Amino acid sequence: MMKKQGLRGPEAVVAVLGLLFQAVSNSGAFSLVSHRYQHHHHQRSSSTSLENEFQLSATVAAASELEAAAVAPGKQSWFPSRIQESLDYSELVQSLYLRHIVTETKEMADLALKQYLNTLDSSDPFGQVASILSACAASRDEQGKIGWVDNFLQQDVTLLPSDVVQKLYLLEPKAGDVHILQSTQTKQFHVVLVEELLVRHAAQTTTLSNTNEPKPVGAFSGRNAVLPRRKLPGKGVVPTLPSNWAHKKYRIETSGCQMNVADSERLAGVLEHDLQMDSTDASQDADVIVINTCSIRDHAEQKLYDKLGPYAAQKRNGRQLALIVTGCVAQQEGEKLLKRVPELDCVLGPQYVPFLPNVLESVEWGRQVVATAPMLHQEAATSSSAQQQQPTDVFAKPVRGHSVRAWVNVINGCNEHCTYCVVPATRGTEQSRTMEHILQECLDLAANGYKEVTLLGQNIDAYGRDMVPKRTFAELLEFLNHNLPPKFRVRYVTSHPRYFSNRVIDAVANLDKVCECFHMPFQAGDDQVLKRMRRGYTFQSYMKIIDRIRDKAPDASISADVIVGFPGETDEAFEKTLAIMERVKFDNLNSFAYSPRPNTEAALWTDQQVPEHVKAARLQRVQALATQHGLERSQRYVGRTEEILVEDVNPRNPKQVMGRTRQGRQVYFDGEIESQRGELVQVLITEARTWSLIGELVDSMHSP
């Protein structure tokens, strides 16, 4: 397959335009091509299927050749280098992120394309044209946005006829391409912009055999490698680790979100079930220490180095210890961690949790291992878009941190590219688990006495869009509700307003096992800030969702996340964040001051960063208002009798137990944890606190 390579910096753009001007100086198409290259400098390129503009087509073709010639050797192609060149386009590209403008005539389509090419300097040129010229009301309202459209030609897309999808994929478009296509079904013309491609990962992980020499993890695609041990300071000795890990001790230190907690539970499962190791809370007794990291907040890397420091010193003094870093910082930093901390044995991306025994096999030989290349994470692949890849079942049986409620991953990764967020870079592309595997994990939990699961996903509303046939998150909720035992509870996090559906609201409102709670981050209240964040919704569209929730499930809890001090956020923009809080009155609100993260666009906007003292003041105002709203939302429970699932003893009062309402509010009341743990009981709420409730036991709902 021929590679089409992107430009290297402004100098290459200038050089290409200079040559191009000499070649087509007499062509009327030059102004269009110069816009094309200006747009490409912002990581896009534009092509056209205008059949009557031969000069433009020829110029674009010539520009592509000059573009390739202007790039220095080794520049990455527009398909990731990990992709095998032997695969064709249909095997490589899983989905296209599309926008479109609908017109009734070819002339209007031509006009729309020209208007788009002539307004590339604006912040959203395609959206501007779509909102004015599109003959489709939905296209106008959404600035032409369709979303991800899969490479399965038999499927219909709500806003785009299936024959247009088929024609588009046959053209093998790149990110940034624009094509005019006519539907034979509707006779309308569609100006289609390809914003992004979702490419299937071909990297596979190989098992390390028990031979005299360690073998590499993975296929050396990406950043998978086994490295020779660097000489250590101090005694300069690399301790020899045991070849038999049975009954050796491990300790896992976890920071971050629920996904990290779930990953740590699976890590523990691998260590205990595969290697027969035992856990310990005492770091001085551990033979293996795993630090599971989070990279969302500022100074995450320095916090990791602070944690590693004492362990590194102990290893320099001869302690036998396998030291492993996993999680998002591991994925983000990769081999750099090994270079900075030579005592570190392994840097392990979250996707390699099941292969920890293989990694330790290499560590036994005194080597350092980095395993952060992408890989597939779907069981059986029978209903996955990646079924040709035959991915490994990596959902190892976890060691749960609780006996009543459990985390269950339903989708890994994120295809969104919010300008402040590192998650797509650290968690990879979206990969949904099958409904059958999710149900089986939930049934296993129920059989072992668990009464509640929380379904996890960075963007849980994207569940199933990478599957064949395509599934939806609402379908998953309905499927689980139908098949799980009575009195079992289901929660979920986290929703994305851009993909949230009415069907999910209906599921939460009507399904007896699905708890009445929504977690849907809004991040900011100002439309311009949301646009710069690349969130894909507005203040009004978010409020429409809230209004629908209040209408269908009026007693449901609504929680959210918000960021203050995003680059360019003015005082006026911040006031709109407070306004949305006043409109919604969230039950819970996670609030953060913006901090620049590595490899994100917003971190590069150095001239628009908000001063730290301003961010701190805004955060204080948000938290004060959130506290006020939290108490208001708690007060509605006073005098009501609520169904409570008993979970734990109150750590501050051993005579009390703690449980949760269906809406997720913690409730404390006098009880006996040994007899009531895992039971559903009726509790009269007598007192409201900001984030919790006090009550009195009325009657047990347990049926023997």
UniProtKB/TrEMBL annotation:
Residues 248-365 form the MTTase N-terminal domain. GO terms for biological process: tRNA methylthiolation. Residues 400-632 form the Radical SAM core domain. CDD domains: Radical_SAM (cd01335). Residues 93-196 form the PpiC domain. Its cofactor is [4Fe-4S] cluster. Residues 635-699 form the TRAM domain. The keyword Zinc does not apply. GO terms for molecular function: 4 iron, 4 sulfur cluster binding; metal ion binding; methylthiotransferase activity; peptidyl-prolyl cis-trans isomerase activity. It comes from the Eukaryota. Keywords: 4Fe-4S, Iron, Iron-sulfur, Isomerase, Metal-binding, Rotamase, S-adenosyl-L-methionine. Transmembrane segments: none annotated. HAMAP family: tRNA_metthiotr_MiaB. Belongs to the methylthiotransferase family. MiaB subfamily. PANTHER family: CDK5 REGULATORY SUBUNIT-ASSOCIATED PROTEIN 1 (PTHR43020), MITOCHONDRIAL TRNA METHYLTHIOTRANSFERASE CDK5RAP1 (PTHR43020:SF2). This is tRNA-2-methylthio-N(6)-dimethylallyladenosine synthase. It comes from Seminavis robusta.
